[in-house]
Specification:
Layout (H helix, E strand, L loop, with lengths): L38 E3 L4 E5 L4 E4 L5 E3 L6 E4 L2 H6 L2 E3 L7 E4 L8 E4 L6 E2 L4 E2 L2 H4 L21 E5 L13 E4 L7 E3 L10 H9 L3 E8 L48 E7 L2
């Protein structure tokens, strides 16, 4: 039997589907299981592989990795990875899962495949224990395995690398290939005698703009305010500096003319 559709009542379907707003896209992502541990926290020593604020991209399995501005970059493991049994990167294995990092005097390293930035991490991302099958506890999970990213927001960063030190308001921002996951400003010198392929990589990886750069200083004499130790509240314990700015490096090269004791912060408007 042939079922007929009444004239003029057939449904036309669009060839796309809106999923979510773009500043926190509804993507279900997971950190790549082979990423080295960069920090641990808490009583359980939860292993962080992507710290908050790092620029991120996706690998061949659509897992989160540090952004490297479209050019391969070397990533090193440490003794901490041997302790936690972090899998080494192996391109021939599913999800990049290789053998566990072995203890020894010379940590292993691997070449992170060229990638392009898709956003930044809004929080510390713990090692993907679902994919590497090495949970620290059967009844404890500090995070869900699925992670979200942010693409469009104003963020304040401590200046933490030499390549960030010469940032000025208005500079475009790209991932730093020498420090995957970190940002760096584009400068005129980056376009000197540049080839088309490199130009494409840079322009494709522009993820935002520097809005403001300031020296970090104590505000309202908060360095004289006693706070509860261990809570990280701005006060005498943090020398009057906001906790999120504590990792800023000194301008040892006097790039900004501030002397070796000066540290800086930058406000970046992301628009990935």
């Amino acid at each position: 039997m042939t079922i007929k559709i009444a004239r003029g009542l057939s449904l036309r379907r669009k060839q796309m589907q809106e999923i979510s707003e773009g500043f926190r896209p509804a993507l279900s992502l997971k950190p790549a299981p082979y990423l080295p541990i960069v920090d641990t926290f808490g009583v359980e020593g939860d292993p962080v592989v992507i710290p908050a604020g790092r620029l991120i991209a996706l690998d061949a399995w659509n897992n989160i990795v540090p952004a490297n501005c479209g050019a391969a970059a070397t990533i090193s493991y440490s003794a901490t990875d041997a302790t936690y049994g972090t899998p080494k990167y192996d391109a021939a294995e599913s999800e990049g899962l290789g053998d566990a990092v072995a203890a020894g005097p010379t940590p292993a390293s691997f070449s992170l495949v060229a990638n392009y930035c898709i956003g930044y991490a809004a929080f510390d991302m713990v090692q993907n224990q679902e994919l590497n099958g090495q949970p620290s506890s059967l009844n404890y999970q500090v995070q869900t395995n699925q992670k979200g990213i942010v693409c469009d927001y104003m963020v304040e960063y401590p200046i933490r690398t030499t390549n960030q030190m010469d940032a000025t308001p208005g500079d475009l921002i790209v991932p730093d290939n020498a420090n995957p996951g970190h940002w760096m400003p584009l400068k005129a010198g980056d376009f000197t005698a540049i080839d088309a392929a490199t130009l494409y990589k840079l322009l494709t990886n522009v993820v935002g703009k520097v809005m403001r750069v300031d020296a970090i200083s104590v505000i309202d004499n908060l360095d004289k305010v006693e706070t509860v130790p261990g809570f990280g509240v701005t006060g005498a314990e943090t020398n009057g500096i906001s906790n999120h700015l504590s990792s800023a490096i000194a301008d040892s090269g006097n790039v900004r003319g501030g002397g070796v004791s000066a540290t800086y912060k930058a406000i970046i408007n992301f628009n990935v």
